[in-house]
Every structure is written in C-alpha cells, then in structure tokens.
Amino acid sequence: MLPALFTAARGVRRSMGAGMRRFDYSDSPQFHDGLFHNRLPATDAPEGSTAGMAAEFATKGRRGKPRGPVQLETPNLPQQAGELAATWLGHATVLLELEGHWVLTDPVWSDRVSPSRSIGPRRNHPVPMPLDDLPRLDAVLISHDHYDHLDTATIDWLLHQQRCPFVVPLGIGEHLSRWGVPDDRIIELDWDESHRVGGLTFTCTEARHFSGRSLGSNTTLWASWVVAGEDRRVFFGGDTGYTPAFTGIGERHGPFDLTVLPIGAYDSRWPDVHLNPDEAIRVHREVGGRVLLPIHWATFDLAFHEWSDPVEWLLQEAAQDALALPAPGGRVDPAADLPTAPWWRASA
Question: Which of 12-26, 188-202, 235-249, 323-337 has the lowest mean pLDDT?
C-alpha cells in the first residue's frame, strides 16, 4: 500500500507548477478579487447535479472508452511546413502548418492527464508520433493550464529540445517559470492582445472556461487563439463553452481557413465550460470558418458520454459544413480532399 502511495505522489508537487499561489494581474479586465473571471456569468447547473458525481465517475466502468484499439495514422509531415495544414495528434494537441511555420498546440505526450503518473485519466490510444519526430517549432501555443492541455513532462522536453517561445494566456508563465522556462521564451497575453512571432501574429481571444492545477481555481487565464499569417488564418478554440463573444471574434479576425474546436467531454451538469458538437458547429459558423477540425475527443475519457458520441453527433449537425475527420496522426490539408471516412466505428 505505502509503495503505491509513494509512487502516486512522486512528482505531484512539481506538476502543480505555481499551485494555488496568486499573482497580481489587476491590469487585466478579466481579473478581480484575486482571480480571473469569465465575462459571461455561469448558468445554473441542474439541481443536484454535483451530488454523487465522484461516485458516478468511479463506477461508470468502460463507458466512455473505445471497445477496441483506436485506429492511428503515422504522421506524414513534409520537410518544410506547408501553406496551411494540421496534423491531429490526439485530444487538443495539433501540429499546425501556416505559411511555412510550425505551431504546436496544447502539447500532451504523457500517458495520464493528472499530477500523478499512476492515478488519473489514461490515454485511449498512444501518441501517434514520438516527440523526437517533431520538426523545429516556431511556437508552442497553450490555451489554459488544465492537465489535459498543459503537460509538465512534455514542457520539460520542449524546453530542452526546442528553442521556440511558449505563447500563453496570463498567469501560465508562472507555471513555466517554475519548470525552468526562461523569461525570454514566455509570451503572456491577455484577451484581445497580440504578439508577432516570425511571420505569424498570435492574438489571445476570449473563451468561456476555468483554470487550476491544484485545489484552487482561476489563478491563471484561459483563452482561444487566432493564428494569422499574411493570407491564412486559423482559429484554435482550446477548451471552452459557448459564448456570444465568438461572433465578435469572427467579425474582428475572421474569416478563418481552418477552425480547430473541441467537441467532447460535454455534460448538462457543466454546460458553460465545454462545447457540445452542436455548439461547436455554431462557433465554427459564427467565426467564419471554412473547414472544421474537431478535437478534444477520442483520446481521454473525461465525461459520461460514449466514446464516439461527439463525432457522431457532429455529423448529424454539420450537413452543410466542411469537416476534416482524421484518425489521430492524420494530416489535414484544407486545399485537398478532406478525410471523412468513419474510422472510429471499427473501435466503437
């Protein structure tokens, strides 16, 4: 018993980064009373929705997991980044190609999304490529600090094996600093702020979510992102619930050649912080997206719906929308034929 506890606790404190420490971001309109806040108030969750939720998670068994091995593709990357392409590596980890630049979003290579190496949600499939196969990155883009989007072990590797900056919302620099990332590689932005890296402009935009890596929440900001070159634009939703702010993002920064939006881990008990597939289609249209790449499903079991429910629901809602549906590891070129074969049904 004790050895197992020691194993579970190993590295937990470091994984928490800055933990519950509060820093002063009073210059931000999103920050007051010592914490970050959504602009749109939360709706009321169904009565009694929190009672027994932990027990339900503990007893749900394999609901939410695939029945068989998940089909993977071996990433077929060009020597040089293309004009516009995206390789989905699972969950919210996407390798973007934009006008000759490589951008990696929310990189997670660990087996579990948890502060512990032996407790917490575990992968439904391996990562389709090793970290060593990554090209020389121009930037790493982070949406927020939850464990399924900000992975300590992966950040450690990127710190030592890459030289690119980390583009992050306010407060996440405190985590990165704790892990040894130098200040000159940290670019922290508030909503509606922009920064140029090489030939790309990164604009931090509103999302409706929350943050936290320990018992405290909302000490760091969460965000969606606009990544813009001279002619091409990508919208990365990260992790978010629906907000009317997406219409304004589309008006100011769209239209977008590619939207990368979450569709999984939704539930009526937390309607404000995760998009369901119907809402993802709505966001895609409101920001002016041309091709939608759905993420945040298939890799980790973080809710109560069945494993393939998000993508099947998406198909029902997207009759007139261009969807890219690669298996993990698949590369999407919006100018070519989009992958749409239902590969997931063999595992569901």
Answer: 12-26
Going from the N-terminus, what domains does the chain have, and what CATH number goes with each? 81-335+339-346 (3.60.15.10)
Edge-to-edge, what's the strand order for the sheet holding 289-295? 194-197, 200-205, 224-228, 233-236, 256-262, 289-295, 322-323
**Structure-token match 């009694």, residue found:** 48
pLDDT tops 60 at residue 5:
no
CA atoms within 13 A on the CB side of 34: 5
What would the 3-class secondary structure string for 203-266 be?
A: EEECCCCCCCCCCCCCCCCCCEEEEECCCCEEEECCCCCCCCHHHHHHHHHCCEEEEEEECCCC
For the stretch 157-187, pLDDT in tens is 999 999 999 999 999 999 999 999 999 999 9
Name the residue among 339, 334, 343 with its Cα closest to residue 97. Answer: 334
Helix, strand, or coil here: 195? strand
> What does DSSP assign to residue 270?
S
